[in-house]
Design goal:
single chain, alpha/beta, six-stranded mixed β-sheet, 15 helices, 8 strands, Exonuclease V, PDDEXK-like_dom_sf, single-stranded DNA 5'-3' DNA exonuclease activity, EXOV
C-alpha cells in the first residue's frame, strides 16, 4: 500500500525534475507540514458552466427589468429571496462577503447580481504574488476531487497541516478557517499566521539578548498581504481590510475555544460526513496522518483531527498586521499594525448580517466618499448615485428660484 501511494505522489509532483522526485517526496513525508493540496474539480464542468451562464443571464434580466412592472415571475421570486439564499444558496458565505461591504455596500450588491467582480490586471498580479508567497512556504500538490466531500476534505487537510506548520516552521500561509457568524456559516483563507516570541522587561534602546528570562510566550500574529502599484504604503489600513483581519481572528479564536459544531456544519453545507474520500485523497491522508489519528477516511473523522489540532494552539494576538508588496517586483513595502476591536467588529457584523438575511437594503457611501464612484463599474446605473444627482439638481433649482425671487 505504501509503495502504491508513494508512486502516486510521484506522479502528482511530476512538474518537478524527475531526478529530484524521490528527494522531494521524502521531504514531503518527513516534513508533513509542508504539504498543501490544491483541488482540481473533476465534476461535469460543462454542466456547471451552463448553470453559471443561466445564472448570469438571470442576473442581467433583474438589472434590466428592475424598474419594469411587468417583471416575469421567476425574476420576482429571485428578488424576494434574501441575498444569502439568492446569491449563496443559503450555504457558505465568505469573509470577503462581509469585509467588502465596508468599501461600498451597493457596489458589492451589484457585483453579486452581475455574477461576480470583473478581474482586473491588478487583481491578477495580486493573485500571482500570493501564489508565489505560498509556494515559498509549502509544496503544492494538485489532486482531483469528485465530490463536495472531497473538496471539503482538502480544506480540512490543509487546515490540519497549516497548524502543524506553525510548530515546525513558525509560520503558515493560506490557512483555511471557518465558523458561524450568528447562524450563518462563514469560510475564509488567512494569508499568513506567524508564531513570534514576546519579550518582557526590554526598554526601547536596549540591546536585545534572547534568554529564558525575557521570553514569556509566543504570539500568533495574523497578517494579510496586499499589493500596490505605488511604491509606498497607505497612511492607514482601509476599513474593509481591518474588518477582514478582525473576522479572521474571531473565527480562529473560536476554533481554539473548541466551539466547533461539526454536525451543524455538515447539515448547513449538505455534506455526508460518513462518505469515504476518493482514493487519491485517501492515499495522501494515509501517508500524512498518523494511523492512530484517523481510521475511516471521511469528513467526520478528519474533523476530529482538526478539533485535536486546535487544542494545541492558543488565541491569536490582538495586534493585526497588513503587509504591502509592490506589484512590479514583489518587494516588501512595509506593514501597518492595528488593534483588534471586538465591539467595532460585532456592531459591523450585526449590520452586515441584516443585509444577508434580507432585513435591510444595501446602502450607498457617505457623500464625502463619493470619490469611490469614479472607478466603479456600476456608477452609471447606481440607484444611490442617481438619487444623489437628482437631489443636487433639485437643490440647485430651489436655490435658483430663491435667488431670482430676491431680484
Amino acid at each position: 500500500m505504501f509503495t502504491r501511494c508513494f508512486n502516486y505522489l510521484c506522479k502528482l509532483v511530476g512538474s518537478r525534475d524527475n531526478n529530484n522526485n524521490i528527494t522531494n517526496l521524502t521531504n514531503l513525508i518527513n516534513n508533513k507540514e509542508c504539504i498543501k493540496l490544491r483541488a482540481i474539480d473533476m465534476t461535469n464542468k460543462k454542466k456547471n458552466s451552463k448553470k453559471n451562464l443561466l445564472k448570469f443571464k438571470l442576473a442581467r434580466k433583474i438589472m434590466e427589468l428592475r424598474t419594469n412592472s411587468n417583471v416575469p415571475s421567476d425574476i420576482k421570486n429571485q428578488e424576494e429571496k434574501s441575498p444569502h439564499e439568492r446569491f449563496r444558496d443559503s450555504k457558505t458565505l465568505f469573509v470577503t462577503d462581509f469585509s467588502s461591504f465596508a468599501w461600498c455596500e451597493l457596489q458589492q450588491h451589484y457585483s453579486l447580481i452581475a455574477g461576480g467582480r470583473k478581474e482586473t490586471l491588478a487583481m491578477k498580479n495580486g493573485s500571482e504574488i500570493h501564489k508565489n508567497l505560498e509556494s515559498q512556504e509549502h509544496v503544492i500538490v494538485q489532486i482531483p476531487t469528485y465530490t463536495r466531500e472531497d473538496s471539503w476534505g482538502i480544506k480540512l487537510y490543509n487546515l490540519i497541516f497549516g497548524i502543524d506548520s506553525l510548530f515546525t516552521n513558525y509560520k503558515t500561509r493560506e490557512l483555511p478557517i471557518f465558523g458561524f457568524v450568528s447562524d450563518l456559516f462563514v469560510f475564509g483563507i488567512i494569508d499568513q499566521v506567524e508564531m513570534k516570541p514576546v519579550f518582557d522587561d526590554i526598554s526601547g534602546d536596549e540591546l536585545l539578548i534572547i534568554s529564558d528570562t525575557n521570553i514569556s510566550r509566543d504570539e500568533l500574529i495574523i497578517s494579510d498581504t496586499k499589493t500596490r502599484t505605488k511604491p509606498y504604503i497607505p497612511k492607514k489600513a482601509p476599513p474593509s481590510v481591518k474588518f477582514q483581519l478582525m473576522l479572521y481572528k474571531k473565527l480562529f479564536d473560536e476554533l481554539v475555544q473548541g466551539t466547533i459544531d461539526d454536525e451543524k456544519i455538515f447539515q448547513t453545507l449538505d455534506l455526508n460526513p460518513d462518505l469515504e474520500f476518493s482514493n487519491e485523497l485517501a492515499n495522501i491522508i494515509k501517508i500524512s496522518c498518523k494511523e492512530s489519528e484517523i481510521k475511516e477516511l471521511n469528513l467526520r473523522n478528519l474533523m476530529k483531527v482538526v478539533i485535536n489540532r486546535f487544542r494545541k494552539v492558543w488565541k491569536t494576538s490582538n495586534v493585526l498586521e497588513v503587509n504591502y508588496k509592490l506589484q512590479k517586483d514583489e518587494s516588501d513595502l512595509g506593514s501597518i499594525y492595528f488593534d483588534y476591536n471586538e465591539n467595532q467588529l460585532e456592531n459591523y457584523l450585526k449590520k452586515t448580517i441584516k443585509y444577508w438575511k434580507g432585513d435591510r437594503k444595501p446602502e450607498g457611501v457617505p457623500i464625502e466618499d463619493a470619490w469611490k464612484c469614479q472607478n466603479c463599474d456600476f456608477a452609471d446605473n447606481c440607484e444611490w448615485r442617481l438619487n444623489k444627482i437628482k437631489e443636487c439638481e433639485q437643490k440647485k433649482r430651489a436655490f435658483k428660484e430663491i435667488t431670482n425671487g430676491q431680484h
